[in-house]
Design a protein that fits this description.
four-stranded antiparallel β-sheet, 11 helices, alpha+beta, six-stranded antiparallel β-sheet
């Protein structure tokens, strides 16, 4: 990021309040939508978490490293957009005490439902600030202070849309990889042979694996597993479904195989996860 971008990020920071703003919505249980500025204390520069909720992070100053559940690292710089997905263990190491980020928090079940239906895009990028981003960020805070739930949701989705628009234009290579992502995130009962998928996309298998990992941070098989687990979380959050029925729906040979893989990625068994979400 250049000096102009750094100044723009500082402008966003200066326009925002120092406190966390929460908007309470009622349903079968109370859940908080919240947003604000986060600057950690010196002893909290590194943390490892497996969150129940979803958090969007937009880094305004400082730098650091994000490490996912598989140990894949991503460097964070001012302008980095990071999705902290519920149920996925991860670590953030902040390099200096000038770290400051803008965040939005959504209940895990709400995020899972919105993301699975395409309302929240998957964004992992470093995005230079703009007037539209500044206005969208401030609108989220102001609407939480004064408006109704529908308006709050609208402003949050507007912010996601602005971030998506500011990503680098899609190249032909990216379009192919996005198509692969769509295939791997669909019909979890189907057996997908990765070399066959690469051939279908007119790309060599080794090149496909390398480019796919650069694009998503995960190998194709690993990406499909993670999408499957995320979908399982969504169903456990929103439907009265048994572990046996869910394992069949997701294409696992046995409930034990499903439970073992689910616990590997979330740290909880499906039953404990469901009880935690519905308690």
């Amino acid at each position: 990021m250049n000096t102009q971008n750094d100044n723009a990020l500082r402008e966003i920071r200066a326009a925002l309040p120092n406190d966390r703003v929460s908007f309470i919505v009622s349903g079968k249980r109370l859940s908080a939508l919240s947003a604000g500025i986060y600057s950690p204390a010196p002893h909290a520069l590194a943390d490892t978490q497996c969150l129940d909720d979803f958090r969007l992070l937009y880094l305004l100053s400082g730098s650091g490293t994000y490490t996912d559940a598989n140990g894949v690292d991503r460097t964070l710089i001012p302008g980095s957009v990071l999705f902290r997905i519920p149920g996925m263990k991860h670590t953030i190491k902040r390099d200096a005490d000038n770290w400051c980020d803008f965040f939005v928090t959504l209940p895990g079940s709400f995020y899972a439902s919105m993301a699975s239906n395409g309302f929240i895009p998957s964004i992992t990028a470093d995005i230079a600030p703009s007037q539209r981003i500044t206005h969208a960020v401030i609108a989220v805070i102001e609407t939480m202070r004064h408006a109704r739930a529908a308006a709050v949701l609208s402003r949050i989705l507007d912010l996601f849309a602005v971030f998506e628009e500011h990503r680098t234009p899609v190249s032909a290579e990216t379009a192919v990889l996005d198509e692969a992502c769509a295939v791997l995130a669909d019909d979890f009962t189907a057996e997908i042979d990765m070399p066959t998928l690469a051939s279908r996309l007119h790309i060599g298998y080794e090149q496909f694996r390398k480019q796919f990992k650069q694009h998503t941070g995960h190998a194709p098989k690993e990406y499909r597993i993670r999408k499957k687990i995320a979908y399982a979380q969504h169903l456990l959050n929103t439907e009265a479904i048994s572990v046996r029925a869910l394992s069949m729906k997701l294409g696992y040979p046995t409930p034990f195989a499903f439970t073992r893989q689910f616990k590997k990625y979330t740290g909880l068994s499906p039953l404990i996860f469901k009880r935690a979400m519905w308690s």
